[in-house]
Write a structure and sequence with these properties.
Blueprint (H helix, E strand, L loop, with lengths): L1 E2 L12 E4 L6 H12 L2 E4 H9 L3 H8 L1 H14 L6 E4 L8 H10 L1 E6 L2 H8 L11 H15 L4 E4 L5 H13 L1
Parallel strand pairs: 2-4, 2-5, 3-4, 5-6
Antiparallel strand pairs: 1-6
Helix pairs in contact: 1-8, 2-4, 3-4
The protein binds shikimate-3-phosphate (S3P).
Length: 176
């Protein structure tokens, strides 16, 4: 477990955002954390897909990544009104400096720091992830994003622990 420089604690009812690479477990751990805290759970990609009426894959293919990123920015801003919620963000959301500033202002961010090997084991062959490439491309993308991810309020090195164990670690940090 590591605590970062901010060491900030749960502000009353502010949303908690899970960030990290594709396959890091943001949705699974997010659901477990929401159960533990008795918070709502929201998957931001699901919200975007619902609003547009297309899957994330279709949005990338038909509207392009730039438009997906605009929708993502809007969806992030809409989280300001969300009390008592755990929100799983897409793997690229925290790369954007503007998103990082908004998220810092409206809630707490937690980076699920998961090895590339574990992420790839989970996502290889998954056709629903438009940015999924070969190991070299994924390694480059993760390295490109690592500095941004490291700006999160709290970092959890996931290892091989269960979603429930990771959720306990995050909940303990929030309460202390
Ligand atoms: C993306 C990750 C995806 C989704 C989109 C872009 C990324 O979410 O937002 O395909 O840029 O890493 P997951 O991290 O849940 O796979």
């Amino acid at each position: 477990m590591t605590k970062d420089k901010h060491s900030s604690k749960r502000q009353s009812d502010a949303p908690i955002f899970l960030i990290g690479f594709m396959g890091a477990g943001k949705t699974t751990v997010g659901r477990a954390l929401a159960r533990q805290l008795d918070y709502d759970f929201l998957d931001l990609d699901e919200l975007i897909a619902k609003q547009v009426g297309k899957s994330v894959q279709e949005i990338f293919a038909e509207l392009g990544e730039g438009n997906f990123r605009s929708l993502e920015r809007e969806a992030i801003r809409s989280c300001e009104q969300l009390p008592r919620a755990v929100v799983a963000l897409g793997g690229g959301a925290y790369e954007d400096e503007n998103n990082r500033n908004v998220l810092r202002r409206i809630g707490q961010t937690v980076w699920l720091d998961c090895t590339l090997e574990v992420c790839l084991r989970r996502i290889t062959g998954d056709k629903s992830r438009p940015l999924l490439g070969d190991k070299g491309a994924m390694s480059k993308l993760l390295e490109q994003r690592r500095t941004a991810y490291a700006e999160a309020d709290f970092t959890v090195r996931t290892g091989e622990r269960s979603p429930e164990q990771l959720a306990i670690e995050i909940a303990n940090w929030l309460e202390n």
